[in-house]
C-alpha cells in the first residue's frame, strides 16, 4: 500500500470516528452553517463537537502548516481528505472568510508574528472576519476607493465608508483596504486589520432582492488602528488585495461546476415529457455544464502545476458565474408556478426563487463579468489599448 | 390593419401613461407589499381604473362597456407593466371578460356591472400542474341533478383569494390531453366545498391553490357550451397570452429605461459607464429585442381584433418573444446596475421578479415556441 | 368599388395580359435575372418582352413620377401593385442598383436636368450602375476614403481605388464617392457619376468564399470627370451617401423577413421527428422570424408616416442581417450532409452552401453590425461618449 | 487521470505542430483544391504522416503500431485542424483502426501494415440519410452461401472514392432503429456490385455516395460479431466523435488566432480595432468557449484511454461543445475580418467551411445534446 493509500485509510477512519451523525446531513439553510466567532451560537452539540475535533486535528485548514493551526497536509493528501469528507457526506466544520481569504494572504504577506497570532485563531474559528473592499463610488473600479487612514505616528485614524461587507454585522474583525496616500492611486492603499468593536465602527445591513441581508454598509468614524495591524508594506495593499481577489474568483468560479448533480436536466426528468423545448434548453445547458466541469478540473491541474496564466482565474470566474445564473434561470423555468411561491411552507419560504435571485450577484461580486472580460482581453489575449 | 396607433389609441396611451405614473407607480407596489396586503393590490386603485374606463375596455357596448379591442387593452397593460402596478386588470378585465362575452345574458348582467364599477374581481382557475398545459385539464365535473359537481384542484390562480367569482375549467367528458369534453364554470367564492390556500408570489402578487371537493353548481353556471369549453377557453388563452405579453413589453421597457438612465449617470474608471462600447452594443441589442417584442404583440392584437385565425399563431409568437426580450431586459438591467441592482432599495429587481411571474402565466417561452412549431406542422 | 379596388382589378388584368408565362416561374439562378444595361444579353424573348412592357407602362419604377419613367403610383397603389405581382408569381422585370440606390438619391439631390437625363434611362434598364464607396483602407470608416478628384476647372481628374464595387465589371456607369477636399474629412467628399468606359477605369473581380465573384476592385488612373456629373453640392457628397446607405440598409434588412415561407421549421417538417433539439432551435428561430416579420411591417408603417427615428434603419439592418445569417446556419444544419456537397448536380453545384456563405456578408456590407450598434446606441438611445 | 499533457505528449504536440505547419499548412489545402485533386488530399503527405509515426498511433504495439491513445491521436488531429491539413487520418487511423482492433488477426495483418506505411486509405460507410442516426442503419446483408450479400446505399463516406477498403455497417437482423442486428463488413473497393459517386464537399474534401447492389462478401469480411456490430460501432463512434471534436478544437483555435492577429493590426476610425471594448469582450468570451471545448475533449480522451464507461457521455459533450465553440470562432472570425473575411484570398473562410463539414461528421451539436439528455435519463 502506497503512502497515499494508507493516508486515505487513516483519514477515512478518523472521519468515521469523529464526525457526528448529525453532521453528515446537509445543512438545513444558512442558519444551520457553522461560521464560528466570538458571538456564534452553536445550533447543536454535534456542530460544536465537530468543529472542535477538526480544529484539534488541524483539519479545518488541512493544508496550512501545523504551527499555524493546520494539519500540514500535502496537496495530494488534501485532495484525498476532501474526497473522503465528500464520501462521508460530512459537513464543512467551519465556513470562514478567514480561512478562504485572509488566511492565504497572511500566509503570503504576513509577518511571522502576525501568522502566529492570527492563523491559529482562524483555524479554531475563534474570530469571524469580514472583508472591507468596495465603496459606494468604487464598485468595479476598486482602486478609486476613498476611505482614508490618517497617519498619527503609531496609529492611523480611519474615516470612510465600505459597502458589500459580507456579514459585517456578525464579524469580529475586518480586513480592510484603506487609502494611506492620496497622491498615488495604486500604490497608496494599505491592507489593515482591525476589531469591529473599535469605537467608531458601525454597520447597517443591506436588504437584497432575495429578501436576505448577507451584506452591510460599514461606516468608519475616526477609527483608531495601531500600525502593527498592517499586512504587507505600507501603500502596497493593492498587491495583497489582488492576490486575494484571485482566490475569491477561484472560489466563485466553482459555482458553475455544480457540487451535486452532474446533469441539470436529469433532476427534472419526470417533468420534461411534455416540454420538448425546455428539454432542449436543459440539454444544451448540460453540454455547457459538463464541459465546464471538465474545464474546472483542467484549470485546477494547470493552476497547481503553474501552467495556468496568472489571470486565468478571471476567465474561470466569468464562465462559472454566468453559467450558474443560467442554471438557476432554467431551474425556475422547470419549476414553473411551484417555484414562484415566495412565502409558503410548501416552497420552503421561496427557497428556489431566493436562490435564483441570489445568483444574479455572482457576476457582480468579486469583480463583474465586464471587468473579467476586460482583464482576459488585455492580460491573456494581449489586446491593445487602455 | 395598421401597425401604428391611431389618434384615439395614442390618446389612450397618454392618459394610461399619466394615470399609472401618478396613481400606481412602483412606490405603490412597494407600499402594498410592505404592508403585507393580503390581496396584493389596492381596491381603491381598482375603482380608479373603473373611473378611467379601463375596466370596461373589452366589454361590449351593448353590455355597457367601451367595446374596444385588444390593442386598447394592451395599451393599459403596457403601462401597468412599466409601473409594475398591481391590479386584477389582466385576470378580470381581459381574460374573464373574454370568457363572459360567451356567456348568456343573465350571467353577463350579473358580472359585467361589477367589473365596470371596479368592484368585482374574477379569478381564473386553469392550471393543475406547475407548467401550463390547458389541454390536460382533469378536474372533474359530473352531472348532479340539474347541475354539476366539481372535484379536483387548481393552482396559480392569481388573485384567486380576492375574487368574487372563479372561472373554473373542468372536464365533463373525455380524457386529459383532449380538447373536447371541457366545460367552463362560474363558481362563487363562497361555494360549499371550495377551499383556498393563498401564497404571496415572487412578484408580491397573491396566487391561490384551490381544492374543489364536490362543489355543486347549477346548470346556469356553465359558460359557453357543455363539453365545448375549448372554444371559449381558446379565446381566453389568446387574450391572456397576448395581454400578458403586452404587460411584459411594459415591464421590459420600464426596466430598460431605468437601466439606460443609470448608464448615463453612473461613473466608473473616471467615465460614465454608458460610454463603454461593450455596454453600448448590449444596450442597442436589447433595444432591438424590445422593439421586436412590441411589434409581435401589436400584430397579435391586430389579428385578435380582426378575428383573424392567425391570432392563434401570433399570440404564441408574442408571448414567446415578449418573454425573451423582457427576460433579457431584466437580466441586463440587474447586471448593468451592478451591486445596487441587487438591493431591494432599487427598483430594477422588482422588474426581474415581475418578469418571472408573467413569464409563467399561460405558457412560458418554451411552451409557446413549441406551439409555434406545432402550428407550423413540425 | 373604391378607387383602390378598381386599381387592383385593373393592374391584375394588366399583369395577366402582359407577363409571359416564363416570367411567372422563379429565376433559375443569378444568370437568369434581368439586370439590363448596354451589354446585357437577354436569356429569352420573354425576359426582353417583360422588361419592355413594364418599362413602357412605367412599372419598373411604379412610384416614380411619369416624367422620370415611372407610373406615378401612390404608396397605396404601389403596395397593391407589388401584392399583385407576388400573387401572379411574376418576376421582377429589372434588377438595378440604378432603381434601388441611385434613383432615390437623384430624386432627392439631382438637378432637374440630371433627373430628366438619367432617370428614364434607369427606368428602361438601359444603363447598368455600380456603386463606388468602400476603399481598401476604409471599410466601416467610410469617410476616411482617399480616392481624390483634382480640380481642373471644368473637370476633375480622379485617381484612386475602390473595393466591393458590385458587378463593376458588368456596369456601364458608376456613382462614386470622391474626395475633393483633403482638409475636411466629412465635408470634403463629392458624389460623382461617370462612365466605366472612361479611359483610366479598370476592374478586377474578387473571388469570394462562396466561389462567386459579384464584387470587384476598381482602379482609377487619371480618370476625367466633367463637372456637371456631380450630384448635389461640391464637398457635400456625404449627405447623398448617407441618404443612400439608409436605403441600402432598408433593403438588406428585409432579408430576415423571408419573402417566401413564414416558418423555417415548416420547410423541414419531415426531417424533424428524429431531431428534437434541432426542432427546438428551429422553433426558437421561427419565433424570432415571425416577430421580425411583424416588426418589418411596423417599421414600414412608421417609416412611411414619418414616425420612425431617422436612424432606425440601422437597427433594422442589424436585426435583419443577423437573423438571416442564423437562418442559413439552421438551413445547413437541417440539410445535413446533403447540403455539404459543393460540386454536384444533385446539390445544384452546392447552391445551399454557397447561399449560406453569401449571407455572412450581410452583416458587413452596407455598414457592419458593429457600426449599426454604435449608431443605434448613440443616435437613438443617446448614449454618451465619442 | 491528469487534465494536462505529460512530457511525451508535449513533445508529440511540438513535433506535430511543426510538421503540419511546414508540410501541410493552409496553402497545402489550397494547392490540392485548386488543382481539382480527385482525392482531395496528397498521397505523399499521407506517406509523410507514416514516417512521422502518426498513422500508427492507435495501432497496438503487438500489431506493429505505437499503441498510444486518444490523447495522442487528438494531439495530431488538433494540429491537422489548426492547419486545415487534408488527410485520411481521422477516417483511417482513428475510426477504421478502432474497428480493426476488434477484427481477427488475418484482417489486422491484411490492413494494418498498409496503414502503418501510409499506403492504405479506408472509408467509413455509415450514414444512410442526411443526418447522423447510426441506430437506423437499414442497408441489408443477407446470408448467401458461406458469406453475405449486401444491398443498399450509403452517403457522406469521406474519402470513400480514394479508399482501398470500406467498412460498411449493415443490418443482418432486426429492424431500423434497433442496435441489435448490425454487422460490420470490410468491403474491397473493387467488389462487384459496388458503385460510387464522389462529390467535392464545402471543405474541399471528397465524399462519396455508395450503391451496393448485391455485393458478395465472404464470412471473413465480418469485423467483430455477426449481429453484434453495435459494440464495435460504438467504439468507432466514440473515437470518431472525440477525434473530430479534437480536430474542431484545432480549427476553432486556428481561426481564433488568425482573428486575434487581425484585431491587433487592422485600423479603422484611427484605432487598431482590437482596442474597441465590444470586440475585446467578444474575443475574451470566444477564448473562454474554445478553452472549455478543449477541456471537454481532453476529458473524453482521458475516459476513452481509461476504458471508462463515461467516455460515452463525454464523447457527446466533447463533440457538442467543440461544435459550439468552433462554430462561434469561425463566425466571429469572418465577421471581425469584415469584407476581406468574405474573400477566397483570406484563409478565415476556409476555416468556416471545415467547421461546417466536421460539424456534421458523426452527429452535430443537436444530435449530441440530445444524446447527453438521453444518457442522463431525460
Count the domains of chain B.
3
Determine the mean pLDDT of chain A.
92
**Widest sheet: strand ordering of chain B:** 1-4-5-8
CATH C-level of the largest domain in chain A: Mainly Alpha
Average predicted confidence as pLDDT of chain B: 97
Anisotropy-based shape of chain A: globular
The 3D shape of chain B can be described as globular
CATH architecture of the largest domain in chain B: Up-down Bundle
Strand content of chain B: 15-25%
For the record, give the distance between the C-alpha atoms at the N and C termini of chain B, rounded to a whole number: 29 Å
Largest sheet of chain B: 4 strands, mixed
Number of strands of chain A: 9
- The CATH homologous superfamily of the largest domain in chain A corresponds to Butyryl-CoA Dehydrogenase, subunit A, domain 3
Low-confidence runs of chain B (pLDDT<50, min 5 residues)?
none
Tag the structure with descriptive keywords.
heterotetramer, A: Butyryl-Coa Dehydrogenase, subunit A, domain 1, Butyryl-CoA Dehydrogenase, subunit A, domain 2, Butyryl-CoA Dehydrogenase, subunit A, domain 3, four-stranded antiparallel β-sheet, 10 helices, B: alpha+beta, Butyryl-Coa Dehydrogenase, subunit A, domain 1, 11 helices, 50% helix, 16% strand
Amino acid at each position: 500500500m502506497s503512502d497515499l493509500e494508507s493516508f486515505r485509510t487513516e483519514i477515512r477512519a478518523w472521519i468515521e470516528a469523529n464526525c457526528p451523525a448529525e453532521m453528515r446531513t446537509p445543512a438545513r439553510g444558512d442558519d444551520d452553517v457553522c461560521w464560528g466567532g466570538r458571538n456564534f451560537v452553536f445550533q447543536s452539540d454535534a456542530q460544536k463537537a465537530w468543529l472542535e475535533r477538526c480544529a484539534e486535528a488541524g483539519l479545518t485548514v488541512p493544508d496550512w502548516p501545523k504551527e499555524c493551526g493546520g494539519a500540514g497536509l500535502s496537496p495530494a493528501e488534501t485532495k484525498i481528505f476532501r474526497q473522503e469528507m465528500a464520501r462521508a457526506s460530512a459537513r464543512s466544520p467551519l465556513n470562514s472568510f478567514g480561512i478562504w481569504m485572509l488566511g492565504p494572504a497572511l500566509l503570503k504577506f504576513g509577518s511571522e508574528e502576525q501568522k502566529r497570532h492570527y492563523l491559529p485563531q482562524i483555524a479554531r474559528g475563534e474570530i469571524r472576519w469580514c472583508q472591507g473592499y468596495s465603496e459606494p463610488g468604487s464598485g468595479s473600479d476598486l482602486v478609486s476607493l476613498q476611505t482614508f487612514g490618517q497617519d498619527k505616528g503609531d496609529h492611523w485614524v480611519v474615516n470612510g465608508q465600505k459597502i458589500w461587507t459580507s456579514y459585517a454585522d456578525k464579524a469580529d474583525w475586518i480586513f480592510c483596504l484603506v487609502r494611506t496616500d492620496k497622491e498615488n492611486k495604486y500604490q497608496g492603499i494599505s491592507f489593515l486589520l482591525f476589531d469591529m468593536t473599535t469605537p467608531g465602527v458601525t454597520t447597517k445591513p443591506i436588504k437584497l432582492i432575495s429578501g436576505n441581508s448577507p451584506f452591510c454598509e460599514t461606516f468608519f468614524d475616526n477609527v483608531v488602528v495601531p500600525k502593527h495591524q498592517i499586512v504587507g508594506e505600507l501603500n502596497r495593499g493593492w498587491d495583497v488585495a489582488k492576490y486575494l481577489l484571485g482566490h475569491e474568483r477561484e472560489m466563485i468560479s466553482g459555482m458553475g461546476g455544480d457540487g451535486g448533480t452532474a446533469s441539470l436536466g436529469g433532476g427534472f426528468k419526470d417533468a420534461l415529457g411534455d416540454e420538448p423545448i425546455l428539454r432542449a434548453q436543459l440539454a444544451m445547458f448540460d453540454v455547457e455544464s459538463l464541459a465546464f466541469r471538465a474545464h474546472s478540473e483542467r484549470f485546477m491541474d494547470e493552476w497547481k502545476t503553474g501552467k495556468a496564466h496568472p489571470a486565468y482565474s478571471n476567465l474561470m470566474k466569468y464562465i462559472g458565474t454566468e453559467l450558474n445564473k443560467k442554471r438557476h434561470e432554467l431551474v425556475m423555468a422547470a419549476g414553473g408556478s411551484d417555484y414562484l411561491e415566495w412565502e409558503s411552507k410548501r416552497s420552503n419560504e421561496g427557497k428556489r426563487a431566493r436562490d435564483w435571485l441570489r445568483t444574479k450577484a455572482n457576476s457582480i461580486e468579486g469583480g463583474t463579468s465586464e471587468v473579467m472580460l476586460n482583464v482576459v482581453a488585455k492580460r491573456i489575449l494581449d489586446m491593445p489599448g487602455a | 390593419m395598421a401597425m401604428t396607433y391611431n389618434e384615439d389609441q395614442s390618446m389612450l396611451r397618454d392618459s394610461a401613461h399619466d394615470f399609472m405614473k401618478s396613481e400606481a407607480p412602483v412606490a405603490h407596489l412597494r407600499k402594498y407589499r410592505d404592508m403585507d396586503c393580503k390581496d396584493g393590490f389596492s381596491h381603491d386603485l381598482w375603482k380608479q381604473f373603473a373611473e378611467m374606463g379601463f375596466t370596461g375596455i373589452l366589454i361590449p357596448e351593448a353590455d355597457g362597456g367601451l367595446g374596444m379591442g385588444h390593442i386598447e387593452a394592451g395599451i393599459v397593460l403596457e403601462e401597468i407593466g412599466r409601473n409594475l402596478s398591481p391590479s386584477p386588470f389582466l385576470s378580470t378585465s381581459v381574460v374573464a371578460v373574454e370568457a363572459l362575452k360567451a356567456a348568456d345574458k343573465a350571467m353577463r348582467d350579473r358580472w359585467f356591472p361589477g367589473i365596470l364599477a371596479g368592484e368585482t374581481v374574477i379569478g381564473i382557475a386553469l392550471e393543475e400542474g406547475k407548467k401550463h398545459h390547458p389541454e390536460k385539464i382533469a378536474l372533474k365535473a359530473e352531472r348532479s341533478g340539474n347541475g354539476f359537481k366539481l372535484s379536483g384542484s387548481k393552482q396559480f390562480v392569481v388573485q384567486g383569494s380576492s375574487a368574487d367569482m372563479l372561472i373554473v375549467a373542468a372536464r365533463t367528458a373525455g380524457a386529459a390531453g383532449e380538447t373536447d369534453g371541457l366545460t367552463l364554470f362560474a363558481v362563487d367564492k363562497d361555494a360549499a366545498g371550495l377551499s383556498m390556500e393563498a401564497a404571496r408570489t415572487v412578484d408580491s402578487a397573491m396566487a391561490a391553490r384551490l381544492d374543489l371537493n364536490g362543489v355543486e353548481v347549477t346548470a346556469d353556471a356553465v359558460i359557453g357550451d357543455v363539453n365545448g369549453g375549448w372554444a371559449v377557453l381558446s379565446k381566453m388563452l389568446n387574450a391572456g397570452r397576448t395581454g400578458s405579453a403586452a404587460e411584459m413589453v411594459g415591464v421590459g421597457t420600464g426596466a430598460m429605461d431605468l437601466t439606460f438612465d443609470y448608464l448615463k449617470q453612473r461613473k466608473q474608471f473616471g467615465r460614465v459607464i454608458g460610454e463603454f462600447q461593450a455596454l453600448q452594443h448590449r444596450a442597442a441589442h436589447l433595444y432591438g429585442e424590445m422593439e421586436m417584442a412590441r411589434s409581435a404583440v401589436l400584430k397579435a392584437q391586430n389579428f385578435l381584433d380582426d378575428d383573424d385565425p392567425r391570432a392563434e399563431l401570433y399570440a404564441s409568437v408574442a408571448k414567446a418573444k415578449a418573454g425573451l426580450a423582457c427576460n433579457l431586459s431584466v437580466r441586463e438591467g440587474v447586471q448593468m446596475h451592478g451591486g445596487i441592482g441587487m438591493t431591494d432599495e432599487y427598483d430594477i429587481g422588482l422588474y426581474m421578479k415581475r418578469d418571472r411571474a408573467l413569464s409563467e402565466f399561460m405558457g412560458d417561452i418554451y411552451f409557446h415556441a413549441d406551439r409555434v412549431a406545432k402550428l407550423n406542422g413540425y
